[in-house]
Amino acid sequence: GGKQQVCHTVEDILGEGGFGLVAKCRNTQTKKTVAVKVNKGEEGVFQQAIEEIAILKQLRRLNPDTCNIVQWDGFFFDKERICLTFELLDQSLHQYLQEQNQYGLPMGELRPVLHQLATALSYVHSINIIHADLKPVNIMVVDRHQHPVRVKVIDFGLACPVSEAQQGMRLGTLWYRAPEMSLGVPLSQAFDMWALGLVMAELAMGCQLYPGRTDYDVLRFIVETQGQPSDDSPQDMYSETGFSHPDRFMFVSLLKDMLHLDPRRRITAREVLEHPFFATGRPQSSTDNTGTESIRMQHPNMKEQTDLWTLCFC
User: Fold this and answer.
1) Which range of residues forms the domain containing residue 227?
2) What is the per-residue pLDDT for 288?
3) Number of domains making up the chain
4) Residue 37 marked as a ligand binder
5) pLDDT confidence of residue 297
6) Is 133 a catalytic residue?
7) Residue 3 lies in a domain
8) H/E run at residue 16
């Protein structure tokens, strides 16, 4: 079920993490260049790799291009290490965003990227899986020179079936972790939607919305800045954001729906795709700055994060 008997020549190291490393390799038989995730031989990492393979086998039911999910080509053993083979993609969304000089993406790029990510999650969720670690470094740009840019979700190392998500599990990355995890609430696919909302905000602002060193730091900031969402924000507050109508309302509306404190009331991936934010009419070029320029101006760094929450939740 996916095991390979082939040799690979390492051409470059693309990244390293707690699991091991990802290498750019050439298949000596097909001459195809691929990305190989080389997991450490440690017992915990080995078991995690086995669980990731089980998830990837389920994802094989989905078309990787239609569903915006990385294509998995199987696995092989290198002594005691499990190696997973994937299609080679260009760069992470984190790297792509850094190349924008930390000013975030224009609305003309942000909208299609968000639609593709919501599409990916809708398919993943349709087969009852939680990705559990959505963040810009786990989203790959297929080709940075292609416009509009195409993205794919990668790294299902922490993914789990909904049926196996247990109270008290430690999933995700701190800055993108939904508040219910810190509160010990049972996890659901709403966990991914919170992360998608934070990715959306980061794409607009060019910086993380909730940085922190501990769960307490992040949870405290969420409580202090978000408070209780309100639907009666004064119109003049929206007029100061630089959003063209109706983008200005729809962007904030969707962000609020993703970052609802109650996971039971958080918007689903399928509902995101049906949100009016994606049906606001006029086509936009990738150089269109409408809707994000003033957010970037208000957030040159994380010291002024609360301005966005003034916009969204006051």
Assistant:
1) 91-313
2) 47
3) 2
4) yes
5) 41
6) yes
7) no
8) strand 8-17
